């Protein structure tokens, strides 16, 4: 039908007198690449210009009294049943032209939108940084007038830009707004060549390909090909066998997610499409040609078209995206604007129109007289920004007439924020925000009580899922865990095909090696070598491999714990005092503990984990993180005992410094026994000629101004260790955050961030080796055999001990069971938090089953016991975080979840078992570097713990406190009281863990659950729901903000 034309001629005085108000546009939420819609079948029917007054779902259509928001909500709530109206992601491009008589003009790309605006800078050589579009209120009202009074053509069927131009000009000619002469000139202007910004950037690749194309063109001329090769229209049928070159993957072409036929562009689009006859004629000649010319020409011209496409930018466009082209400009011969809004059905690939080879769905054309270029530019920016708005974008797809589009603009205007012109500089480009608000509330009508029904889509964090429901059957929970995990078992290995997994494996291998060897060394000192470093390596490797293969949550990393070491010390001392065999008694306790763990699995005792709330979880996690940090610093300071320094050094007396070994003045009983065992006397030893190690071996004394009681002063080593330690910490943190820096391409930054810790370790090892300072190195056993010759790899549970010890040992085994259960399940709760977005489910019962079985195996083999290590597991999860790759320029990558797989854990512990054969390489790793890794892991694991956020509130005035969601609902004094209780529990845990009473540490962790229950007497349920609820902070805040905005 005929559309009325825009007829608004603004005078210069009116424009100059108009006060421009800039508005901050609400940033649209990132779109998903695919939407799910219910289809009632694809209907092929002629679209009438007037739609039925009732919707397909039976609801009444909106009346004239409805607000724009209500009309939009009604429109978006209807099911069209037509695939052509299913919204897709949009790429919007703004092209401008200025045509004067006698000048050869072209359309030039000046801006583009995928989510945020990017402009071609004034120099014309580069794109600007993405920024939030700011629009003048006047341009939005002018755009509204354009839609109201201009030509609106919905569901146009056209196959080329020529057809679109003819149909638009037909409408204008019928209305009398465009004459014959003007029509011809407007058509010529619309069909002018489009020059895109990426053509300059990629121009250096074009001449090479074009030269080969010319060779092929010359060879093909004798075969009666059309001499106008520039007009050759390349479509998929001209490629051999209608397929791309063999080098392209069948699933993924040069352009990620774009179907193959849409990836082929013509080299130079003709003014008119070739006729079918000429096309078939040309095709016949091509088929007949068997030489180099035609086939090579087709292939090379295809590569020429590909060479003009910015492949890097193509990766940022979601699969299935469509184009929206905005064409604005000034034409000298026009005396009034020509406006048209067009929606194509179906979308069509208009070669050369858009910067990227995707189909075009929308076109907005605004051509007007000279002198109003900036005005047209702002209107073009307004429609382009509207097309990136999530709501108007959907309205544009589903609109049935002009009024729907106007309602969409009005609804958009209802949401914008006006900034006074005297208080803000409109030339300032607003940086894209890290988080954008959800626009769902704009789609959903308010319920009668005035509060938006956001549904139950927001999941609460925590661990209250079906995995922890009691089944009432023996091993019922275990069987359900196996059924839940079995379908994902193969994908647990295929999903590990990623550089990220390699980086995680290398990082955690280095991080796990040191504590395992250190724990083994301490255990060897406590048990006189009965269980030492080699047993610790073997036990960790065997248990870790079994856990990675069969556990329900393979992201958990097993390690040794402090309370286990304390238990081993107490047990060894008891056996020594009463003359019992330590390894046999330990085997009995381990077997009983394994039995109790299996009993807990059989009775679905893991379901009790649901009583572990944030209060207990954060206290335990914070304690382990603090212990990691404390022990890393303690080990660094302890190096001062082995590498003493002269604190009162007089540089003028350096020539007088000396140190020598002398006979001990008062030999101890241990020294005398040592001499007696080796049948030597002090007079037989030439003390002054002994080296440092020999002097220490013979228990000699160091004498001299360059000596300390522990040995000679060692220059540089301690200070070099401090440099290595802190360099490791800061370099690891810096490289881990490198992903968000502005240097290097995105992929390079991602790789550096993933390999941050491994790169740091390699760098520190190289620097340490280059300087040659004798810093302490990682010591790994170089022979695979038990530490003591009087024991083997299998231990008799009874051995020389009385038979009744096999029964009485169930008492200490109960304490061990509590320790294993609490350590394992609290760590599992932290790993399985819903904010980690794990998709393959968890397996509390299966985890405990594997740990229990392997604990029994290690007990019989005389190996240490291993259970879930909290900090190592958190570091493992953090190293496998997935973020969106296809993100619009300026958009922050979205957290997608964790790369759930078994490969990293399996490889960590496999390589750990092979470390005995790699001592020649591992001996170069300085221990201070590993201590630095411990400090980094402990500090990085503290992130996100609400307890530390609340601790900082004690030193902040109220006006400077962050906008935490719980501060909105809980009085500050109650927040402080809750923090004090939690801090008191943390201090008590610390005191117990670092004292001789560490054996009762698991009982104290269990007591935290009951202390949390007592808090019900001090706080209301509402207060505890904000302070201790497991719903993530950001979700609660997002829900409340949405509800407040709706109520306003």
From TrEMBL:
For region Disordered, the annotated ranges are 26-70, 428-468
One GO MF annotation is: monoatomic anion transmembrane transporter activity
Cellular localization per UniProt: Apical cell membrane; Basolateral cell membrane; Membrane
Gene3D superfamilies, per this entry? Helical hairpin bin, Mannitol-specific EII, Chain A
Q: What Pfam families does the record point to?
A: Band_3_cyto (PF07565), HCO3_cotransp (PF00955)
**Entry's transmembrane regions:** 502-524, 536-559, 579-601, 608-630, 717-735, 755-773, 803-822, 843-867, 975-992, 998-1015
Q: Where is the Bicarbonate transporter-like transmembrane domain?
A: 473-1032
Q: How does the protein's chain sit in the membrane according to the entry?
A: Multi-pass membrane protein
Show which residues constitute the signal peptide. Answer: none
* Domain Band 3 cytoplasmic positions: 88-426
Q: Which keywords describe this protein according to UniProt? A: Cell membrane, Disulfide bond, Glycoprotein, Ion transport, Membrane, Sodium, Sodium transport, Transmembrane, Transmembrane helix, Transport
Write down the InterPro entries for this protein, in alphabetical order.
Band3_cytoplasmic_dom (IPR013769), HCO3_transpt-like_TM_dom (IPR011531), HCO3_transpt_euk (IPR003020), Na/HCO3_transpt (IPR003024), PTrfase/Anion_transptr (IPR016152)
Alphabetical GO biological process terms = regulation of intracellular pH
Q: Where is the composition biased (Basic residues)?
A: 29-48
* Predominant subcellular localization, coarse grouping: membrane
Q: Name one GO cellular component term.
A: basolateral plasma membrane
Q: Where is the composition biased (Basic and acidic residues)?
A: 49-63
Is 4Fe-4S there in the keyword field?
Answer: no
Task: Extract the NCBIfam families matched here.
Answer: ae
Q: Which family does it belong to?
A: Belongs to the anion exchanger (TC 2.A.31) family.
Mind telling me what this protein is named?
A: Anion exchange protein
Query: What's the gene?
Result: SLC4A10
